[in-house]
Amino acid sequence: SYSFCTLLIPNMPSGPASARAAKQWADLNKVTETCGRDELHEQGVTCDGPLDLGKSVLGGDVSNAKKVNLVIVGAGLSGCVIAERCAEELGLTSLVIDKRDHIGGNCYDSLHESGIRVSEYGPHFFHTTHDRVWEYVKQHSEWAPFEYRGRGLVNDISGKEVLVPIPPTQDTVNKLFHAGVASDGDMEAWYETQRVPNEDPKNGKEAALSRVGADLYEKIFRHYTKKQWDKYPEELDASVLIRLPCRTSTDDRYFNDKYQALPCRGYTRIFENMLLTGACKDKVTVRLNCDFFKVRDQLPEHDMVVYTGPIDAYFAEQGLPKLEYRSVVFEKEYSEEPEDGFVQESLCCNYPSADVPWTRIVEYKHTPNQPEHVRNGNVKGSICYKEFSSATGDPYYPVPNPENRALYERYRELAEKEPSVAFVGRLASYKYFNMDQAILNALEMYDSMKETGKLAPQRPPSEM
Known about the structure:
Elements: H1 23-26, E1 35-36, H2 39-42, H3 55-59, E2 68-73, H4 77-90, E3 94-98, E4 109-111, E5 117-119, E6 126-128, H5 131-138, E7 142-145, E8 151-155, E9 161-165, H6 170-177, H7 184-194, H8 204-229, E10 259-263, H9 267-276, H10 280-283, E11 284-288, H11 292-295, E12 302-307, H12 311-314, E13 325-335, E14 348-350, E15 360-363, H13 372-375, E16 382-390, E17 397-398, H14 402-417, E18 421-423, H15 426-429, H16 435-452
Parallel strand pairs: 2-3, 2-12, 3-11, 8-14, 12-18
Antiparallel strand pairs: 1-7, 4-5, 6-10, 7-10, 8-9, 13-16, 13-17, 14-15, 15-16
Helix pairs in contact: 4-16, 7-8
């Protein structure tokens, strides 16, 4: 059993980042112990890193592929959920292709040469309020309770750098502004002295000021937004910042969802269980290093294409402008023997100020789902990923402003006319989805497939 207790080995180097929030907040998490099923582990698979998928999978050759019901472009959450559900419940066959050399999309994690589990495209923290999603992911992994708590290195009113909770809590305003907040009522009163009332904010700045006020806006949100989006808040939709969490308590959890957990053997294992076990073992063929646009004419006979890539890339020949995305560039640094085995005090440290170009530094060794030899303290070094937002690279985040929304609508109209192609997921919908939203969207589209024979969303992406 991979219980949560085994994740906190007594002789592990004393990194100060705990995997759980304070008891009164951790108790709100309905994930109370290890749960779920890892079928590959039950079958005797013991490796900590990604499985070797073999030459035929990695070779990317589709020329000899047999007729399938679905060609699925993209081996991330959206594509794999649809492949798994269609195989398991409907007996449909799929060819899943991806231009990358791995499955899992941006959720992919692997082992650094030191043995530390790292996420190649940034950290992922699973959280959801949806019972259906939680029950689904438990079929494909064992999970241990985990509450992510964000931290940021920010200058207080005297100019001293202090590590504070983000989203802001009582501790945040006390450390930054010496506010003397001691209760929820004190915190609400402090907010009221700060906020700029606005019932109809027209942009991100107006939304932020109405939520958190000028002091927190300047210290935490203004410059971080500029680094993340290369736009100041006033250049973005109000929707980007209107939901800024305004904590009045000491709850320093980043998310409020009732289910919060990490997969015990990493995220890649979820996709391996989805595609390599059960009905998928015989019904799903995977080809990696396989660019859809380069092999389009070589694909086997099929009934439908499920496209999960950028919608503007699919219609590139139409001559429309490209949609705007933000990407992330990672600068990696391995430290041989940092003090107490760790480089920084927290798993993720955000840098909201304008004086450094990076947005955050992630030290993966803090994550409690590390392989046993890391948890036992046998790896003395640690690796940090420094993240920089970028206009070039793999598309991560759609840029929400009126121009991009209008352009996406033009692409959406083209997509609706495309025969036998379903556009699924965040890139195809030009809408950022959390992991659970991507899964729910795919499950609901599968429901439509089961009921009507067509993959179609049951709600617009804006409602996800």
